[in-house]
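Design review, sub-item: ligand-bound model
Attendees: FS, YL, KQ
YL presented the inputs for the tetrahydrodeoxyuridine complex:
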Amino acid sequence: MDYQGLIAQAIEAKQSAYAPYSHFRVGAALLTKSGKIYSGCNVENVSFSATNCAERTAVYKAVSEGEREFAAIAVNGDNGDYLPPCGVCRQVLAEFCDMETFEVVLANSEEDYRIVTLDRLLPGAFLVKNLKAGDVSDV
Ligand code: THU
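KQ shared the predicted structure:
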Protein backbone atom coordinates (compact mmCIF):
# COMPACT_ATOMS: atom_id res chain seq x y z
CA MET A 1 0.00 0.00 0.00
CA ASP A 2 1.28 3.46 -0.97
CA TYR A 3 0.57 5.82 1.88
CA GLN A 4 2.14 9.01 0.52
CA GLY A 5 -1.22 10.64 -0.30
CA LEU A 6 -2.62 9.78 3.12
CA ILE A 7 0.47 11.17 4.82
CA ALA A 8 0.23 14.37 2.75
CA GLN A 9 -3.29 14.89 4.08
CA ALA A 10 -2.18 14.31 7.67
CA ILE A 11 0.57 16.90 7.24
CA GLU A 12 -1.91 19.32 5.69
CA ALA A 13 -4.41 18.78 8.54
CA LYS A 14 -1.69 19.66 11.04
CA GLN A 15 -1.85 23.24 9.73
CA SER A 16 -5.29 23.59 11.35
CA ALA A 17 -4.15 22.42 14.79
CA TYR A 18 -5.38 24.54 17.66
CA ALA A 19 -2.55 24.12 20.15
CA PRO A 20 -2.00 27.40 22.05
CA TYR A 21 -1.00 25.59 25.26
CA SER A 22 1.35 22.83 24.14
CA HIS A 23 2.45 24.48 20.87
CA PHE A 24 2.59 20.91 19.59
CA ARG A 25 0.64 20.44 16.38
CA VAL A 26 -0.60 17.03 15.22
CA GLY A 27 -2.42 16.01 12.05
CA ALA A 28 -4.08 12.72 11.16
CA ALA A 29 -5.73 11.27 8.05
CA LEU A 30 -8.03 8.28 8.36
CA LEU A 31 -8.64 6.03 5.34
CA THR A 32 -11.98 4.21 5.09
CA LYS A 33 -12.20 0.77 3.51
CA SER A 34 -14.18 2.40 0.68
CA GLY A 35 -11.29 4.77 -0.04
CA LYS A 36 -12.48 8.03 1.54
CA ILE A 37 -10.20 10.10 3.73
CA TYR A 38 -11.16 12.03 6.86
CA SER A 39 -8.52 14.31 8.33
CA GLY A 40 -8.20 15.77 11.81
CA CYS A 41 -6.02 17.95 14.00
CA ASN A 42 -5.59 18.36 17.73
CA VAL A 43 -7.98 20.84 19.33
CA GLU A 44 -6.84 22.01 22.75
CA ASN A 45 -8.83 23.66 25.51
CA VAL A 46 -8.00 25.95 28.41
CA SER A 47 -9.49 23.18 30.56
CA PHE A 48 -6.71 20.87 29.44
CA SER A 49 -8.57 17.56 29.83
CA ALA A 50 -11.08 18.72 27.21
CA THR A 51 -8.35 18.58 24.57
CA ASN A 52 -9.02 16.31 21.60
CA CYS A 53 -6.17 14.59 19.77
CA ALA A 54 -5.85 14.68 15.98
CA GLU A 55 -6.58 10.96 15.62
CA ARG A 56 -9.82 11.16 17.58
CA THR A 57 -10.91 14.24 15.66
CA ALA A 58 -10.53 12.25 12.43
CA VAL A 59 -12.37 9.20 13.81
CA TYR A 60 -15.25 11.26 15.19
CA LYS A 61 -15.59 13.22 11.96
CA ALA A 62 -15.79 9.98 9.99
CA VAL A 63 -18.19 8.18 12.34
CA SER A 64 -20.45 11.23 12.46
CA GLU A 65 -20.61 11.06 8.66
CA GLY A 66 -21.76 7.43 8.81
CA GLU A 67 -18.41 5.69 8.31
CA ARG A 68 -17.40 2.77 10.54
CA GLU A 69 -15.03 0.68 8.42
CA PHE A 70 -11.44 1.83 8.42
CA ALA A 71 -8.23 0.59 6.81
CA ALA A 72 -5.47 2.91 8.03
CA ILE A 73 -4.56 6.17 9.72
CA ALA A 74 -1.54 8.38 9.11
CA VAL A 75 -0.26 10.57 11.93
CA ASN A 76 2.23 13.43 11.74
CA GLY A 77 3.33 15.63 14.63
CA ASP A 78 5.68 18.50 15.31
CA ASN A 79 8.21 16.24 17.02
CA GLY A 80 10.33 15.63 13.92
CA ASP A 81 10.06 11.87 14.42
CA TYR A 82 7.47 9.10 14.35
CA LEU A 83 4.59 10.10 16.65
CA PRO A 84 2.89 7.20 18.42
CA PRO A 85 -0.83 7.78 19.12
CA CYS A 86 -1.73 8.24 22.79
CA GLY A 87 -3.45 5.48 24.74
CA VAL A 88 -6.91 7.04 24.53
CA CYS A 89 -6.67 7.31 20.73
CA ARG A 90 -5.52 3.67 20.51
CA GLN A 91 -8.62 2.63 22.46
CA VAL A 92 -10.89 4.74 20.22
CA LEU A 93 -9.34 3.21 17.10
CA ALA A 94 -9.84 -0.26 18.62
CA GLU A 95 -13.58 0.41 18.84
CA PHE A 96 -13.91 0.46 15.05
CA CYS A 97 -10.80 -1.09 13.55
CA ASP A 98 -9.65 -4.66 13.13
CA MET A 99 -6.70 -5.06 15.48
CA GLU A 100 -4.67 -7.37 13.23
CA THR A 101 -5.10 -5.56 9.90
CA PHE A 102 -5.68 -1.86 10.62
CA GLU A 103 -2.47 0.00 9.80
CA VAL A 104 -1.16 2.95 11.78
CA VAL A 105 1.24 4.96 9.63
CA LEU A 106 3.67 6.84 11.86
CA ALA A 107 4.86 9.49 9.44
CA ASN A 108 7.87 11.69 9.92
CA SER A 109 7.42 12.82 6.31
CA GLU A 110 5.91 11.50 3.06
CA GLU A 111 9.10 9.55 2.45
CA ASP A 112 9.94 8.52 6.00
CA TYR A 113 7.31 6.46 7.77
CA ARG A 114 6.74 3.27 9.76
CA ILE A 115 3.67 1.08 9.62
CA VAL A 116 2.39 -0.85 12.63
CA THR A 117 -0.84 -2.75 13.09
CA LEU A 118 -3.13 -1.75 15.94
CA ASP A 119 -2.64 -4.99 17.85
CA ARG A 120 1.02 -4.11 18.29
CA LEU A 121 0.12 -0.70 19.73
CA LEU A 122 -2.60 -1.97 22.08
CA PRO A 123 -1.91 -5.58 23.06
CA GLY A 124 -4.48 -7.15 25.34
CA ALA A 125 -7.03 -4.46 24.49
CA PHE A 126 -10.44 -4.29 26.15
CA LEU A 127 -12.73 -4.89 23.17
CA VAL A 128 -16.43 -5.26 22.51
CA LYS A 129 -16.04 -9.05 22.59
CA ASN A 130 -15.05 -8.72 26.24
CA LEU A 131 -18.50 -7.39 27.15
CA LYS A 132 -21.11 -9.92 28.19
CA ALA A 133 -23.35 -11.09 25.35
CA GLY A 134 -26.52 -9.06 25.32
CA ASP A 135 -24.84 -5.82 26.36
CA VAL A 136 -24.09 -4.78 22.80
CA SER A 137 -26.50 -3.17 20.38
CA ASP A 138 -26.01 -1.96 16.83
CA VAL A 139 -26.88 1.58 17.79
N1 THU B 1 -1.68 14.81 20.60
C1 THU B 1 -2.33 14.33 19.51
O1 THU B 1 -3.08 15.08 18.84
N2 THU B 1 -2.14 13.03 19.16
C2 THU B 1 -1.32 12.17 19.81
O2 THU B 1 -1.26 11.01 19.46
C3 THU B 1 -0.49 12.66 20.91
C4 THU B 1 -0.84 13.98 21.45
C5 THU B 1 -1.86 16.22 20.98
C6 THU B 1 -2.67 16.44 22.22
C7 THU B 1 -2.16 17.81 22.65
O3 THU B 1 -2.88 18.81 21.97
C8 THU B 1 -0.73 17.85 22.17
O4 THU B 1 -0.61 16.81 21.21
C9 THU B 1 0.31 17.64 23.25
O5 THU B 1 0.03 16.50 23.99
